[in-house]
Design a protein that fits this description.
The protein is α+β, with helices and mostly antiparallel strands. It folds into two domains: about 80 residues; about 240 residues, 2-Layer Sandwich (BirA Bifunctional Protein, domain 2). The chain is built from eleven helices and nine strands. The strands form two sheets. A seven-stranded mixed sheet has the order 1-4-5-9-8-7-6. Strands 2-3 form a two-stranded antiparallel ribbon. A hairpin with a 2-residue loop joins strand 6 and strand 7. Bound molecules: phenylalanine.
Length: about 350
């Protein structure tokens, strides 16, 4: 009897030894102890035998069955461990691999300069005002004392739209008139108006669209001294106290007197170079005392009040701050170029 059992055991052991995975073992299990397996079928045949043989044969078969189950389960357990190891190895996570840092968004340099300017003027008590970019020729020109034959009104300089008397505003100065109208004769008027403006220009230092910040103060007894003090507070806050500035007489139809403000050239420090065309200075804004006709057009009496106004090019100032001699890269959305300005965050101004 034990011979028969050990024979079954041997065959099984051989079969199991060559089984490479649990699927193969399951096949062997079916062959021997499945519903139609060899041992199972032999057990079913027992009923046909006489009681004596049935007893001994039954013992043999049951013992063989037990042995088969044990061997199969052993093998399955062993294979299970191996398969788990393989799976663990396959799913191994290398915790030492460097991660990919996500790019952090940042404000465009022009936005940063605009916000700096806004902060400086808001701290001095100005409030923000806005006007439309598609403007009437009245607000953009006539109300500002710019006559019909002024060169600024030439097709060469302005973008006219298909609607009569409409133009893409060539400066933020129309907001002077709109600001005075909105104040309805109250004093003081003290506004800054940031925004996009458009001119038919396109070279290294001019783009067809650029940004200005307009400033306007109207009150009793405003003088050129107020204008200078305000602008110097602004340049000191943005460029530091070591910066040199100068005011040059100029001409604008909407201011009288008119002055332009220059700062020392960042590229050469004032010695004279290509960026400043050899002068050592770069112009950053136009300004002056508000022309009496402009005050009148805004609803104010030039006999009683006076005012100053300025219009500052944000790109010009950004170029000065960041030391650029070409403004076109500011619009090309080259992320490498734009993120390069991060290094300026260490400076007091940004
Ligand atoms: N509007 C002028 C320009 O765009 C600048 C300016 C504004 C000058 C206000 C004087 C007063 O050139």
């Amino acid at each position: 009897m034990s011979d028969q059992i050990s024979e079954v055991g041997q065959i099984l052991a051989q079969q199991l030894a060559t089984a490479e995975d649990s699927a193969a073992v399951q096949e062997i299990r079916t062959e021997w102890v499945g519903r139609r397996g060899r041992i199972t079928l032999a057990l079913k045949e027992l009923g046909k035998l006489d009681p004596e043989t049935r007893r001994t044969q039954g013992q043999i078969l049951n013992a063989a069955r037990e042995q088969a189950m044990r061997l199969i389960n052993q093998k399955l357990e062993q294979l299970g461990r191996v398969e788990e190891d393989i799976q663990l190895e396959r799913e191994r996570l290398d915790m030492t691999i460097r991660g990919q840092a996500p790019r952090v968004g940042l404000l465009h340099p022009l936005t940063r300069v605009r916000r700096l300017l806004e902060d400086v003027f808001l701290r001095m008590g100005f409030s923000l005002a806005y006007g439309p970019e598609i403007e009437t020729t009245w607000y953009n020109f006539e109300a500002l004392n710019i006559p019909e034959d002024h060169p600024a009104r030439d097709m060469q300089d302005s973008f006219f739209v298909d609607v009569p008397h409409m133009v893409l505003r060539t400066h933020t100065s129309p907001v002077q008139i709109r600001g005075m109208e909105a104040a309805q004769g109250k004093l003081p008027v003290k506004i800054i108006a940031p925004g996009r403006v458009y001119r038919r220009d396109d070279d290294a230092t001019h783009t067809p669209m650029f940004h200005q910040i307009e400033g306007l103060v109207v009150d009793r007894g405003i003088t050129l001294g107020d204008l200078k003090g305000t602008l110097l507070a602004m340049t000191t806050a943005l460029l530091g106290d070591s910066i040199e500035t100068r005011f040059r007489p100029s001409y604008f139809p909407f201011t009288e007197p008119s002055v332009e403000m220059d700062v020392t050239c960042a590229a050469c420090g004032g010695k004279g170079c290509r960026t400043c065309k050899g002068t050592g200075w770069v112009e950053i804004l136009g300004s002056g005392l508000v022309h009496p006709s402009v005050l009148k057009n805004g609803g104010y009496d030039p006999q009683k009040v006076s005012g100053f106004a300025f219009g500052l090019g944000i790109e010009r100032l950004a170029m000065r701050i960041f030391g650029l001699d070409d403004m076109r890269p500011l619009y090309q959305n080259d992320v490498e170029f734009l993120t390069g300005f991060e290094r300026y965050t260490g400076r007091p101004i940004l």
